[in-house]
Structure formats: C-alpha cells, structure tokens
Amino acid sequence: MNLVRFSVVAGLALLTAGVAEPVQAYKLAVSQYGRVTATLPWAVATEKGYFTDEGIKIDQIIAGMGGGTTLRNMLASDLPYGEVATSAALAAIRSGIDIVIVNTASSHIGEIALVANPKSSIHKVQDLAGKKAGFTNPKSTSELLVRLALKEAGMAGKVDPVSTGGFGAGLTALDTGGIDAAPLVDPILTLQPERYRVIFSFADLIPRMTWLVGITTRKFARENPEMVRKLVRVHRRAVDYIYANRDDAMRIYAKVWNADPAKVAKYFPKYFTYEGEWSRGGFEKAALEKMSEGLQLVGDVDKPVDWTKVIDQQFLPKDQQRPL
Question: With 0-12 CB in 10 A as exposed, 13-18 as middle and 19+ as buried, what is 238?
C-alpha cells in the first residue's frame, strides 16, 4: 500500500471511530400518564435525565386512556414495556397475550373517596342502604374499589353499584339525583370540599392494593433482560427522588399535569404520606391478595389469582424479591 493510500484509509478509520452509533429512540406506554398521580415517576425520570443515564432514549411517553389502549401501544412499540392497571394486565394474559408483570408501580389507591350531595341525608356508608353508588365503567378499578369497600363496610348486597361512564359523568348523575354516591378525586376533592360530602375515603377501607404494574412481553424479557432491569431501575430511582425532593417533585407534577403550582401546593403534599402511592418495585403479598379479591368481586376471575404464574421478579434487586 503506498503512503498516500495508507493515509486516506487511516484517516477514514479514525473518522469512523469517532462517530458514535445513533441511539435508538423509543416510545414508552404509560396508562393515564399525566392524569393519574401514580405515573409521576416517569415525568421525574424524564426531567432528571434518568433514562439517559441508563443509555435509553425515550422520545415520547404515550398516555393511553386505559389498560387496553396502553397495551396496544406497548405491543406496537419497539420497546414492549409499559405501565398498566393490574386488572388490564391480567385480562391480557387471560386473552392469550404472552406478557408478564415485572414490577409494582403503585400499591396505594390515593385520595379517591366516595361522596354524596351535601344536601342529601347520606352521611355515612350505612345511609346508602337501598340506594345507588356509581363507578366509572364495568370491571374498572373504580368498580373494583366500590365493591371491595362496600364488602369491607358490611354493605355488600345492600347498595346497588351502577356504571356512569366516567368520573365527570358520575358527578353529573349525582348532581341530578340519578345516583346517591359517586367516586371523586383531586383537585375537586381537596380544593372544593364544600361541593360534596365525603362518605368515606377508599384507602381507609382498602389500605393496600397493587393496582398499577409494569409489564413486558415474555419474549422481550427473555431476549433483553438488562433493558427491563434498566427500566425498572429508572422507575425506582425516580420514586426515591420524589420522596427525597418533595418541592421539586411538586414542581414537575405541576409542569407535566399543566396545573396551577399554588393549587398543587394545597392538595399534593398528602400524597407523600400515602405509603405505596409510588412503589419502588417490589411486590406485597397482602396488596396482591386484595387485588385478587376485588377481581373476583367484579367477575374478572372466578378464583384467587396465582401470582407466581404472572409475575417475574428477576428484574428486581435481590432484596426486593419476596415470596408471593
């Protein structure tokens, strides 16, 4: 090889070596992202650069309106990992979709409460005997909560649970006398307490329930175990940041949720007191059993869920892996 040709080849080699391979950009599917407070860790992870730290490029978080939508988005993505309601994950598995649950995202149901019209005679759950209590949609988390709470309060079979089609529709039905109680969440619950009378907070009757989980396909988990570990780790790191940096967590929430920071400061602090509102990833046997009980009440399953068949804990740190 002559000197000129050698110099050209060597120069091209050095130039090629200095050009990094482009990092593939992914879309992450998260049910109710930017709507449900439990999805805040993904906003924090984006804001603080935790995905980048793990060598993952997320160019968009797709906020599915519910489990089915999020599952479709996840399965169509090059990154088949997502966050969905536990009930949606189990329904997909029963339908033959080969997915597996790999981490807990939330095991506390937050601030949601059952409320009545303040002009009504309903003050406590026993006052609902012979009356109608609304929930959003059939087999939804809200129906599961209503039926579980009524059972815990000894009112199962004494109250008529009815579907209203959504939280807003439920409040409309309550205001017009179509139902006697409806579930309510923030910000109205805290910022406008005079509008409705709280009958009970669901968390007082159901303190622990694994209702939001991280899932992936078994094929992706088998072929890309380190990627799954990284995503679970990103979520855990963001959860730790939320609890350690509350003011900044509220700032990020206000930004992503497009909420007034002054109003957020009034209703958001209580979330830090809810153990499990944002989970570090591990599974709690009692919280899983409560979800299984609720699924049986709404007719999703006819026997207790065998969690060992649908959960894979290998992507969690050893100290978080527990008997199911």
Answer: buried
Q: In terms of CATH architecture, what is 25-108+209-320?
A: 3-Layer(aba) Sandwich (3.40)
Is the domain covering 113-205 a CATH 3.40.50.620 domain?
A: no
Is 113-205 in the same CATH topology as 25-108+209-320?
yes
Q: How far apart are CA 322 and CA 291, in angstroms?
A: 17
Q: What are the extents of the domains in the chain? A: 25-108+209-320, 113-205
User: Which pTM value belongs to this model?
Assistant: 0.89
Dihedral angle over CA of 60, 63, 69, 71, nearest 10? 60
> What is the residue-level pLDDT of the chain in tens, covering all 324 positions?
444 444 444 444 444 455 555 568 999 999 989 999 999 999 999 999 999 999 999 999 998 666 577 788 888 888 999 999 999 999 999 999 999 999 999 999 999 999 999 999 999 999 999 999 999 988 888 999 999 999 999 999 999 999 999 889 999 999 999 999 999 999 999 999 999 999 999 999 999 999 999 999 999 999 999 999 999 999 999 999 999 999 999 999 999 999 999 999 999 999 999 999 999 999 999 999 999 999 999 999 999 999 999 999 999 999 999 999
